[in-house]
Amino acid sequence: MYHSSSPCPLIQTPRWLSIPMCQRCVQSIILPCTSTDYVSEPPRQEDTEKFMAKMPDCMLTVIICIPQATDALTPIPIGMLNLIDRNGGMMPHLRRAMLGLNILKQYQNQGYGTEAIEWGLHWGFHRANLHKIHLGYFGWNEGAGRLYKKLGFIEEARFRDHLWHDGRWWECIEMGMLEDEWRESRMGKK
User: Fold this and answer.
1) CA gap 55, 81 in Å, rounded
2) How far from the centroid of its chain's Cα atoms is residue 46's Cα?
3) Which among 99, 117, 181, 186 has most CB atoms closer than 10 A?
4) Is 9 within a domain?
5) C-alpha separations of 110 from 11, 30, 107, 115, 118 in Å
6) Which CATH number covers residue 55?
7) pLDDT tens digits, residue range 1-56?
């Protein structure tokens, strides 16, 4: 995985939007069905473009890559991690961000998500001086819930029948971690 102590300069330039590898990665990471509160529909090219256009506004956006066995200089994008200020930078004194993570299905359950989240927590708490990092998942993704709990996130809210997906309603579970909890958990790993 490539690490950056500041947001990727590639993402902060219009050039980012024209790199086919990054576009393919984003396209394949966006959920198989993009959903609104009302209608599910297949993803469209403009959905990818809108998603990518918002990335420079994130506190941190990282494309997660692994080296190719045959060409280490051409990385394989396997996912994306974001830290997002949900207040749009309007209230920096709150010192909190939402963590978003997407790993392509064929690379899940191999430790990449764990490594990415641990790195994102370190960057958020140590570099960005955040007080709280929160995230959420839907009920169909129980593996994510187990991972987040293992990493030290604590359930803060459960929204029943929150999203219609794949023929039924699913709950949304919100979890959070405070900087003191993160520091305490790190002491046990040293």
Assistant:
1) 11
2) 20
3) 99
4) no
5) 26, 20, 6, 10, 14
6) 3.40.630.30
7) 333 333 343 333 334 445 555 556 666 655 443 444 445 566 666 766 776 666 66
